[in-house]
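Researcher: We're teaching a course module on how sequence relates to structure. For the next exercise, students receive a sequence and then see the predicted structure as C-alpha cells, so they can try to spot secondary structure elements on their own. Here is the exercise chain.
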Amino acid sequence: MAEAALAIALPVAAALLAVPAGRRAPWLLWPVAPGSLVLAWLLAQGAPSTSALGGWEAPLGIVLRVDGLAAIFVGLSAVIGSAAGVFAVRYLQAREETRKSFAFWPLFFSLWAAVNAVFLSRDLFNLYVGLELLTLSAVAMVALDGRTSTLVAAARYLLFALFGSVAFLIGTALLYGAYGVLDMVLLADRIRPEPASWVAAALMSVGLLAKMALFPFHAWLPPAHGGAPAPASALLSALVVKASFYIFLRLWFDVLPPLATPGVMTVFGLLGATAVVYGAALAIRQQRLKLIIAYSTVAQLGYLFLIFPLAGIGGEPEPWAASAWSGGVFQALAHGLAKAAMFLAAGAMILSASDDRLSHMAGVGQSAPVASFAFALSAVSLMGLPPSGGFLAKYLVLTASLASGQWYWGAVLIVGGLMSAIYLFRPLNPLMRKRSDDAPPLARVHWTLEAAPLALAISAILLGVASMGPYQLIQIGNPVAMIGGPP
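Model: And here is the predicted structure for the students to work with:
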C-alpha cells in the first residue's frame, strides 16, 4: 500500500526542503498537513494492508504493515502535527524568534516522519532507527531555546534516551542471535520462554520505559517538556512518549505473549499505579503552568500500564481483555489530543501574560478566552469526565477491572481522577479571576494561537461522543479483541 510509504516520505521531504527554504519553511506545512490527513484517512480505509518497500518481503526487505492500531496512531500524528504546525507559525513570529524558527521546522518535520515510521514499522531494527531519529529531533527541540536551564534539561533527556536506545538495541541483537529474524510477525512464531528471550525482553522493556518516562524513569520529562517551546512541548507529550508506548504495546501483545506471566504484568501495573499517584502529587505542588502540565503527563502515562494486568495476555483469554486493551488505546489517543491542546493553550496564555507563574495568570481568561476555554475542555478529558474520550477510556478499563475482580486497579483510576481535578483546577482558578490594577497589562494573541488548541480540545471531546468509528478501527488486527470478545 503506497500510502504507508508516503506517510513517512512526505514529512521527510519537507524536512529536507526546510533547510534551504529558510524563512519560507513554514509554507511547507500547507501541503504536508492536508496531505498527511488524507493519507491517514486512506490508511484507515485500507486496513489491514502490507507494503514491501522495493518489492522485497521480510525478512530481507522492509515491510510496512497497517492495521487499525497503526492507522489510528498515524491519524493522531496527522491531527496533532497539523495543529501544532499551524500554532508554531504564528507562535514563532509572536516571539520574534526568526533564528530559532530556521532550526525548528527541519526538526518538526523530522520528528513527524520518525513518529510515522515507528507506527508503521514491524521490524525491530527499523523501530530502533525510528526511535533514534525521534530522539535526536526531540532533544534538539528541547534545547532550541538556548537558555542554560533548557540546555541542562536537554542534556538530561539525552542521557536517559541514550540509555534507552542502548538497552533496546542490545535486546534486539539478542533476539536476532537467538531466532535469526527481526520482523515482529516472523519473530512471534519463533519466540520461546528461554534465557535469551527473557534478557532481551527485560532490556527492551527498560529501554522503552526510560524513553517514555514512566516512573521511576520520569526525572527527565518535566524539565524537558516544561522548558521547550509550546509547540515542541505539545509534540513531545502527545506523540514522542506515545511512540515508545506503542512499541511497548506491540512487543508484549504481538511478540512476547509467551513471556507475559501474571507476575510480569503485575509489575507493569504497579509501575503505572505508582506513576498515577506520584505524578499527580508532584503536579499539585507546582507553581508554574507548564510544569503542572508536564507532571500531569507523568501521571497520565501511568494509566496506560494498568491495562497489562487486566488484558489477560500470556494465559487463557478472558472476556474482559478486549475492554482493557481498547481502554488503554483510547487513553493514549485521548491523552495525546488533550495534552497537545493543553500545551498549545498554555503557550497562548503565557504569551498573553508574559509569564507562566500561576500568580501572574489572573485575568488571562479575558485576554485569551478561547485558549482558556480550550484548556478547560482539555482538563475535562484528562480528568475523565463525560462525554470526553478520557471518560470512555477510563470507563473501559474500570469495567475490565471490576469484571476481573481486580478492583484495586479501578481504585487507582478513581484516585488519579480526583487528584487530576485538584491540579487542573489550580490553574483554572486564576484564569477566571479579575486582574489587579497594578499588575502588568495583558496582551491579546493572534486568533490562530487560540484556534489550534481549541480544535484539539474539541477532538478530545468528540473522541468520546463519536467513539464507534475509532473503536471499530482499533479492533482490526487486534488478537485480544478477536479472542477475548467484547466485555
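Model: If you want an answer key for the exercise: The chain is about 75% helix and 0% strand. Residues 321-353 form the longest helix (33 residues).
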